[in-house]
Specification:
Elements (H helix, E strand, L loop, with lengths): L9 E3 L2 E3 L9 H24 L11 H13 L23 E2 L7 H18 L8 E2 L28 H4 L25 H25 L4 E3 L4 E3 L11 H12 L3 H14 L9 E2 H19 L2 H14 L13 E2 L6 E2 L8 E2 H4 L3 H11 L3 H15 L10 E2 L10 E2 L6 H13 L5 H17 L1 E3 L5 E3 L1 E3 L2 E4 L1 E3 L5 H11 L5 H20 L9 E5 L2 E4 L13 H13 L2 H18 E2 L2 E2 L18 H14 L11 E3 L5 E3 L21 H4 L2
Parallel strand pairs: 3-4
Antiparallel strand pairs: 1-2, 5-6, 7-8, 8-9, 10-11, 12-15, 13-14, 15-16, 17-18, 18-19, 20-21, 22-23
The protein binds 1-deoxymannojirimycin.
1-deoxymannojirimycin binds next to helix 19.
Length: 670
């Protein structure tokens, strides 16, 4: 047998190796085999756990890899409790304080804690003190993915955080209502005609929202005539849900809570700005996204909104890395590369870099992270210290050199909201930011002296300046916010300009209304001129469009609230009827190509600011004064309401970490 069967004698380095067909091993051999197997096992497992790239889809280890992923996700907290989060300045929260979004928000843990407290109080006969809340600034990575809304945060009907409104809430006052915005837009018994107007605007919002939801959900904007997503909007084709983020606070204020919840959940699960690999405008992203999210945070207290605002603002920060600290215009959140608009050469735009102050300051206050405030304070410093031609600010400035570009000044496109934010930074700070108010008054004195003109028939308008001279007898629709701005400036500080401000406010708002009244559609053109016989009418074809813009309605709202002149409400209602007649289509609301046509063609775009601003201002125009009162709220330039610091309890400033008491040796001596 042996001669027939192969012996399988093996050799290693010429030395014969004993055959494994032998019936048993010696002890030393057993140890050797076991240790080889063990080593192999450890190396194999190690590779699985530490080299995730081994996860190739055809790997036989898919299921093991899933386990690896789960363990990796759970992290070291499987074995040990998570460390205390550090804030921006490297400080840890004071031990013993509750971290928002963890214990503080879980109803079961809260219930357990309350039961425990009651037991201690009962057993020990002593009172357990409530621990103060402490908000820890979330890290960018931890803010990904859905987070739970606070219990009951979005269940209530919309409506004011003031005492007067409590009795009239249709749902009745709620025990925890002080933590969120709960006023009603109109008190019961309101004039049925006003109620009808308010309800009409609310239905418009539902039409705009429902169609966006149907045809473009998650995309930035809707093409209401073609009933598909608008992929070339200011935010491009990426899935940033601009209409959702911009429209959310309007939904909340109108009491459209199912819609609000859908939008809120989309934001929690799908808004991931760092995945966007295209250029975004730092300004637009700030006013619409950071502004919209912060407003929702203020109104509801839902910390998901604050976390998302941080995520978005952090994605913008690389744009500020310039020699002056003035930001570039565009940023790619994925590559972190920033650049300027091609048409602006090396320059940034005044209205863009000057319209970040409210959002960044408020974000610093609610998170306790100073970085955002530092960025906009730096911009303020540069603009305050630079030489200003005739006390005005040119529209272009180079962030590398800190030098002005061409000396073109405007309260319309390229300049507008920079001036608006000087006033509003002062207002929202509760008057603390005095520098902003001084800069505002100085610039406005110059603007009124040099830009304010009156047409032959007596219409006041704001013209454009270049090198100190009027270059165009033209006013942009965008400048129509100025009526409201001057009225706010007039009523919030009594100074040598107050009377003039209010006079100009009435006159400019009237002119903007004239630009509407003189069109066939009763909607205003993008720009209107005053030359010869032409007054308050567009002349060039690109000026004849109406883009669903809000500025004129914004001024009607502010003027109504501050002066109570009926004409402002009447003009607003004319606007509602014109929108319904010409802009409403089956698939939403469209802008118009020419406001001077009886049956104008649509531009097939439902702008996100139509939901954020136009409909919000029209709704507010027909609401009670106690609904978002102007002495408690300031609207950012995208109509997202921010609470006024020191006056509005919904400001939600993050408490400063309490420094630990230095040990007192005298008292501690035994
Ligand atoms: C909005 O995005 C803001 O109001 C901005 O300040 C100017 N343009 C649009 C609306 O017209």
């Amino acid at each position: 047998m042996t001669g027939i069967l192969p012996t399988y004698q093996r050799f290693v380095n010429g030395v014969p190796v004993p055959s494994i067909s032998r019936r048993s091993f010696r002890l030393r051999e057993k140890y050797l085999i076991v240790s080889v197997l063990l080593t192999f096992g450890i190396v194999w497992l190690g590779a699985l756990f530490y080299l995730p790239e081994f996860k190739s889809s055809n790997s036989v280890n898919d299921s093991v890899y899933n386990v690896y992923k789960r363990i990796q996700k759970a992290g070291p907290e499987l074995l040990m409790p998570p460390p205390l989060a550090q804030n921006d300045v490297g400080e840890f929260p004071v031990v013993g304080m509750v971290r928002h979004g963890e214990e503080g928000d879980d109803p079961h843990v809260v219930e357990d804690r309350n039961r425990l407290r009651a037991k201690i109080e009962e057993d020990m006969g002593m009172k357990v003190l409530e621990r103060p809340q402490f908000d820890v600034a979330p890290s960018v990575s931890s803010s990904r993915g859905p987070s739970k809304p606070p219990v009951d945060a979005i269940e209530e009907p919309a409506a004011g955080n003031n005492a007067a409104s409590k009795d009239v809430s249709p749902a009745g006052p709620k025990a925890d209502s002080s933590d969120k915005f709960v006023a009603v837009a109109l008190a019961p018994g309101a004039d049925p005609e006003i109620k009808h107007k308010l309800e009409t605007v609310k239905k418009m919002m539902m039409h705009a929202w429902n169609n966006y939801k149907l045809y473009a959900w998650g995309k930035n904007e809707l093409k209401p005539m073609s009933k598909r997503a608008h992929l070339s909007s200011v935010f491009g084709a990426g899935e940033l849900g601009a209409t959702i983020v911009d429209g959310l606070d309007t939904l909340y204020l109108m009491g459209l809570h199912d819609e609000f919840r859908e939008g809120r959940d989309w934001v929690a699960e799908h808004l991931h700005i760092n995945e966007i690999d295209s250029d975004l405008s730092v300004f637009e992203t700030t006013i619409r996204f950071v502004g919209g999210l912060l407003s929702c945070y203020a109104l509801t207290g839902d910390t998901m909104f604050k976390d998302k605002a941080v995520e978005v603002a952090d994605a913008l920060l690389p744009a500020f890395d310039t020699p002056t600290g003035l930001p570039f215009a565009l940023i790619n959140p994925s590559t972190k590369a920033s650049r300027q608009y091609h048409w602006a050469g090396p320059n940034s735009i005044l209205s863009e870099l000057g319209t970040l102050h409210l959002e960044f300051t408020y974000l610093s206050d609610v998170t306790g992270r100073d970085i955002y405030r530092q960025k906009v304070n730096r911009i303020r410093e540069v603009l305050n210290n630079i030489d200003k031609p005739g006390d005005l600010y040119p529209n272009f400035i180079n962030p590398r050199t800190g030098q002005w570009g061409q000396r073109h000044m405007s309260l319309g496109a390229l300049g507008d909201s920079f001036y608006e934010y000087l006033l509003k930074a002062w207002l929202v700070s509760g008057g603390a930011d005095e520098q902003a108010r001084i800069m505002f008054d100085t610039a406005m004195q110059a603007a009124l002296d040099k830009m304010l003109r009156v047409s032959p028939s007596g219409l006041a308008y704001l013209a454009e300046l270049k090198y100190g001279r009027i270059i165009e007898e033209k006013m942009d629709h965008l400048s129509c916010f100025a009526g409201g701005m001057f009225a706010l400036a007039s009523t919030t500080l009594d100074n040598s300009l107050s009377e003039r401000y209010m006079d100009v406010a009435h006159k400019l708002t009237n002119t903007c209304h004239e630009s509407y009244a003189r069109s066939d559609t009763k909607l205003g053109p993008e720009a209107f001129r005053f030359s010869g016989a032409v007054e308050a009418r567009a002349q060039k074809s690109n000026e004849k469009v109406y883009l669903l813009r809000p500025e004129t309605f914004e001024s009607y709202f502010i003027m109504w609230r501050l002066t109570k002149q009926q004409r402002y409400r009447d003009w607003g209602w004319e606007g509602v009827q014109a929108l319904e007649k010409h802009c409403r289509v089956e698939g939403g609301y469209t802008g118009l190509v020419n406001v001077y046509h009886q049956n104008p063609q649509g531009d097939d775009v439902q702008q996100s600011f139509f939901l954020a601003e136009t409909l919000k201002y029209l709704y507010l125009l027909f609401s009670d004064d106690s609904f978002l009162p102007l002495d408690e709220w300031v609207f950012n330039t995208e109509a997202h309401p921010f609470p006024i610091k020191g006056k509005n309890p919904l400001y939600r400033e993050a408490p400063k970490p309490v420094p630990l008491e230095p040990a007192n040796d005298e008292n501690n001596r035994i």
